[in-house]
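Morning, I've got a small favour to ask if you have a moment. I owe you a coffee for this, so here goes:
>
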Amino acid sequence: MSLIQKSKPMVFPRAGRYLLLFFMAALLGLGIWGYLLYNAAYRPNVQKDYVLYVTDKTSFDMVYDSLEVNGVMRSMKAFRKVVVWKKCRDQIRAGRYHFTAGMSTNQAVNMLRAGMQEPVTLVFNNIRTAGQLARVVSRTLEADSASVADLFNGETAARYGFTAETFPAMFIPNTYELYWTTTAEAFADRMKREYEIFWNGERQNKALGIGLTPAEVATLASIVQEETNKNSEKARIAGVYLNRLRKGMLLQADPTVKFAAGDPSLRRILNRHLEIDSPYNTYRYAGLPPGPINFPDIRSIDAVLNFEQHNLLYFCAREDFSGYHNFARTHAEHARHAARYHAALDSLAAVRRAGGDAATADSLDFAEEPEPEPEPE
């Protein structure tokens, strides 16, 4: 009798096949998910250059809306995914961020999360007042003008080794790179470091050689700067004032009278202006005023440090209204120069009164005419 053995179903191998198929599907799904995640994170997503300003009060939704409204990214969905993946929704730091075309989502998110902002360029020159400086700074930095203006008080100045009057000397006009998030206090700290760098050993020695402190050099430089915009004349004018200081003469500098009057745009210095009782009025008080009357630039400061050595004591605007000056050693010579200048002014006024040639009048524009100085004692 033969036994016929029936085959039994192979249960385990079939289950194994299903398990294998499951794992293959899972791997395929993971691969697709990884591919999509890679594309979302690492493929270029930023499609245009854009500058985004983020403050401490800016939320992620505000950042998202700004980028979306301005069409900065091809896929905002990818941006949101990467933020969620990196768990940095609430970790975006304040700053000024420059998104550049071709940047990946990952690069953009890392930039915001790490606070990798680009510095901004702050340029200030031709500054007369603290308020004017504050307005210029606030147009470039996050710090508002009020916080910058508030720096200019005796208490703050003392912390940096200045008086309220000499404090402007610390802020040397130039071009600086700072982060947009720089506060008013941090701005002052930076200016102090730049001041110390500027006043190196060579400049310190030159100041010592003429018997002035750096703050006093800045004070004289501020007067020179107001007297002329011709850099070629600054060292000569500085020499005139240093000669007068050495001889114990009053400086009799018109810009200091304008400062004392509170009106730097004052066109004519009258006798009543000369009577203003202010330590800045160098027609009444000997020596330098208490501090700078503006924020002198580097060329004006260096003009004082490298003053022209001569025996000149006076100067007066040229009669050709070129902005240059005639210089004199004696008062008599100075008076002749002043008479020529006044005569030219009278001629110009006559032309204007008579309604003369407009081209002639325009060529002698008062905007380029330094006012005649009152007669020195």
User: Anything to note?
Assistant: The beta strands are 50-54, 95-99, 120-124, 174-178, 314-317, 325-328. The chain has 16 helices and six strands.
